[in-house]
Amino acid sequence: MSDLSTLKLFATAPHPCSYLDGEEATTVFIDPAANIDSRLYTELSQLGFRRSGSHLYRPHCANCQACISCRIPVQLFRPNRTQKRCLKRNQDLVITWADTIDTDEHYQLYQRYIESRHRDGDMYPPTREQYQTFLSAEWDTTQYIEYRLDGQLVGVSVCDQLLDGLSAVYTFFENDHERRSLGAFAILKQIEKAQELALPYIYLGYWIRDCQKMSYKTQYRPLELLVNKRWVRLN
């Protein structure tokens, strides 16, 4: 175990919440100068921290505890009927693991994704610099998964390999393949990868009960939620 008590934390000033209207958010970050390795990253993930670029953070809001860390215990996961159909619909995709996504092809897919699906978010408008900073490879843990249809790049997942699982950092995909449910498919393939590696969890970030954009996370069962510093399982 690492000595987490020696880590310095920095807090942002209160700012409008990106997920709940009318709420103020405060975020705490691990000291950017800290020596992060896969063990420390894993321990911080178990405590509810999340990665954005080179920063590890978690919400620390004065009047709200709506953001709840969640993870899938993958050895217990069994796809439901809808998820089985999703896997079947996407059997024609070619899936490969890439060393980098620092190309025009990858960025242009990301740009189209943000412009079509997240115009109301804080990543709009997208820029190449923001893309590279947000989805950078950190601490020799980051892997990229490509999804291609007839050679065309239609989706990318960014995930980090921890000591106890995979952290699903971000997925972006073509918006004109809605029937394929590429976001769901990406999670299902990461679950399969964690199972192959005998890793117990997929970390999905934060779930917020009153945020529609987060509702998809409860479709993966069982699901574990970090409540009062303890992981509680929902079957």
UniProtKB/TrEMBL annotation:
Domain N-end rule aminoacyl transferase C-terminal: 105-226
One of the record's GO molecular function terms: arginyl-tRNA--protein transferase activity
Residues covered by the N-end aminoacyl transferase N-terminal domain: 15-85
InterPro entries xrefs: Acyl_CoA_acyltransferase, Asp_Glu_LeuTrfase, N-end_Aminoacyl_Trfase, N-end_Aminoacyl_Trfase_C, N-end_Aminoacyl_Trfase_N
Main subcellular localisation: cytoplasm
Keywords, sorted A to Z: Acyltransferase, Cytoplasm, Transferase
Compartments where found: Cytoplasm
Role, per record: Functions in the N-end rule pathway of protein degradation where it conjugates Leu from its aminoacyl-tRNA to the N-termini of proteins containing an N-terminal aspartate or glutamate.
Name assigned to this protein: Aspartate/glutamate leucyltransferase
Native species: Gilvimarinus gilvus
